[in-house]
Amino acid sequence: MFRSVRHMIYDLIEWRSQILSGTLPQDELKELKKKVTAKIDYGNRILDLDLVVRDEDGNILDPEQTSTISLFRAHEIASKQVEERLQEEKSQKQNIDINRQAKFAATPSFALFVNLKNVVCKIGEDAEVLMSLYDPLESKFISENYLVRWSSCGLPKDIDRLHNLRAVFTDLGSKDLKREKISFVCQIVRVGRMELRDNNTRKLTSGLRRPFGVAGNSGL
């Protein structure tokens, strides 16, 4: 309720500024005044306040100069217009909710949260740890890699991310849930010399990526 009234007040402030600017043509000014009065009547209705009856130009009718029958008919017209506006907004909201529910029902989305605690593997050099989802029956990966750069000291290269190595595999739909098996695969790539035991400084290389190890869990 508060958000609805706040939006209406913002609209009224904006329209009031346009009216006071004195730059609108007469036909646009007349239409804007009708829009303002309709918004006020609508706001009074949802706040359970009294309905103000108006003439065709949006001016408040004076009960001292207007007959009882005219006031009654004006009240009926105003009530009907407000009720139509309420039903219209209710219908629009229902359509939005139905479309949203249908969209989620047709394309449900799931996610897998991963929290890397430690890499218990004696590598000897810097490494890259890649985690991804794999379909063993189709022999293909079904997600992108979550990459963590691991140092030779047994800690993340980015020390600020220590104890904060988290990732979410998103947009897993109904097609993925129907897969017979989904494996969580972890690959380790060593980054450094061609041969780990090579100590010859003349042949020493660096920065080469060499496959080192792989592990998987098919319990997903």
Automatic annotation (TrEMBL):
Swiss-Prot/TrEMBL keywords: Coiled coil
List the InterPro entries: DOCK, DOCK_N, DOCK_N_sub1
**Which region is the signal sequence?**
none
GO MF assignments: guanyl-nucleotide exchange factor activity; small GTPase binding
- Dedicator of cytokinesis N-terminal domain residues are 2-205
Naming one, the record's GO cellular component terms include:
cytoplasm
Q: Which Pfam families does its entry note? A: DOCK_N (PF16172)
Indicate the segments annotated as coiled coil, or none if absent.
72-99
**GO:BP terms for this protein?**
cell migration; myoblast fusion; small GTPase-mediated signal transduction
Q: What is this protein called?
A: DOCK1 protein
Q: What is the lineage of its organism?
A: Eukaryota, Metazoa, Chordata, Craniata, Vertebrata
